Amino acid sequence: MTPKIFIDGEHGTTGLQIRQRLEGRTDIEMLSIPEADRRNADLRREMLHAADIAILCLPDDAARESVAMLDGNTTTRVIDTSTANRVNPDWAYGFAEMDKAQAAKIAAARFVANPGCYPTGAIGLIRPLVSAGLLPATYPISVNAVSGYTGGGKQLIAQMENAGAEDHIASPHFLYGLSLAHKHVPEMKLHGKLDRAPIFAPSVGKFAQGMLVQVPLHLDLLAEGTTLARLHEALADHYAGQNIVEVLPLGTATSAPRLDPTALNDTDRMQLIVCGTEGNGQVNLVAVLDNLGKGASGAAVQNMELMIGKAA
Ligand SMILES: NC(=O)C1=CN([C@@H]2O[C@H](COP(=O)(O)OP(=O)(O)OC[C@H]3O[C@@H](n4cnc5c(N)ncnc54)[C@H](OP(=O)(O)O)[C@@H]3O)[C@@H](O)[C@H]2O)C=CC1
Ligand SMILES: CC(=O)N[C@@H](CCC(=O)OP(=O)(O)O)C(=O)O
Q1: Is the pLDDT score of 280 beyond 90?
Q2: d(CA 230, ligand 1 centre) in Å
Q3: CATH of the domain at 227
Q4: Which is catalytic among the residues 117, 123, 250, 259?
Q5: Ligand with minimal distance to 207 CA
Q6: Does the beta carbon of 151 lie inside 6 Å of ligand 1?
Q7: Is the beta carbon of 83 within 6 A of some atom in ligand 2?
Q8: Mean pLDDT across the stretch 271-296?
């Protein structure tokens, strides 16, 4: 039977990108609502119940509403791209590479929470090192990041691109999340296997897509004797055998002195880079990804493939 897929929020930034990725597929059937009716609750309910998989590309409150609309339904499976369910133990966390068993968990799950874009980078760097016993769960982690402005959805896109708008942002780069209570922190702590919430310092640059996520560490606060080579080896071992998360060779940082947040735009991949100089006691772990690729829509499609049994 051809799986029926409904994207609730298909006309937003993440939804449109998922639609593009699924265009022309004959092995799935797309259920759709015209853009003008995108907020019509009756139509949404009808589609949610008719779908085999509903992909929610909505703000948190609207995503919760969609899940509530499925009350009594036992067949529709859900991938939620919002923050609403990412630390909910009843939902599978949709980061297939974070553990060897995760892809199978996603494949079997009824409810899947797609990770946030920043947490994909941060957890992708942190979790394998905690699991390997190199990074203590108590380490006072900082996560510093820059994102393209599509990360803020239609509203931020309009603020950045529309010079005539009252709330136009002219700044070429800005910090935000200054209250240190960003909605991604609980997810980074839980799925990063950290005991202590990381300090998260996000920023936005005047470019549409792309992202760098940095986790700087002091080696003397890690497991005794940890070197850059050992950290690199642990990451490379963890991600061996798949082709979405790539650990770049040790030394990349010295041969390529700049890292470009847009380097993986329009791909669904993520690259991890171990930066520093062996022997000087510090490391900066960096993830490069497209916030709309592995950071959102690419991951949602990857999860859908797992759920319909099509993933490699
Ligand atoms: N952009 C990104 O890089 C990432 C986004 N996400 C998450 O994906 C989700 C969607 O974000 P994004 O695509 O960026 O946001 P957008 O604002 O671009 O799109 C959201 C869409 O949802 C629609 N919508 C809003 N409220 C309702 C409602 N009550 N009922 C029906 N439709 C509604 C909007 O319609 P309208 O035009 O009328 O407002 C819009 O089409 C969010 O939860 C976000 O946090 C996750 C990872 C990365
Ligand atoms: C640049 C920007 O504004 N980014 C968004 C996060 C984008 C994202 O990952 O969305 P989720 O929160 O659903 O994960 C923010 O910081 O709120």
Answers
A1: yes
A2: 40
A3: 3.30.360.10
A4: 117
A5: 2
A6: yes
A7: yes
A8: 97
| Residues 200-249: tens digit of each pLDDT | 999 999 999 999 999 999 999 999 999 999 999 999 999 999 999 999 99
Does residue 14 line the site of ligand 2, with CB under 6 A? no
Query: Side chain identity at 196, as an amino acid letter?
Result: R
Residue 312 pLDDT: 59
CATH number of the domain enclosing 21: 3.40.50.720
Please state, as a whole number, how many other Cβ atoms lie within 10 Å of the Cβ of residue 115. 29
Same domain, 210 and 160: yes
For residue 299, pLDDT over 90 is answered with: yes
Q: What is the DSSP letter of 293?
A: I
Same-domain check for residues 189 and 89: no
| Claim to verify: residue 141 and residue 282 sit in the same structural domain | yes
Q: Among all ligands shown, which has an atom nearest to the Cα of 38?
A: 1
Is 13 inside a domain boundary? yes
The answer, yes or no, to whether ipTM is higher than 0.90 is: yes
Residue 183 has pLDDT above 70, yes or no: yes
Choice from 32, 33, 38 to test ligand 1 binding pocket (greatest atom count within 8 A of CB): 38
Examine the residue annotation and report whether 57 is marked as an active-site residue of this protein: no
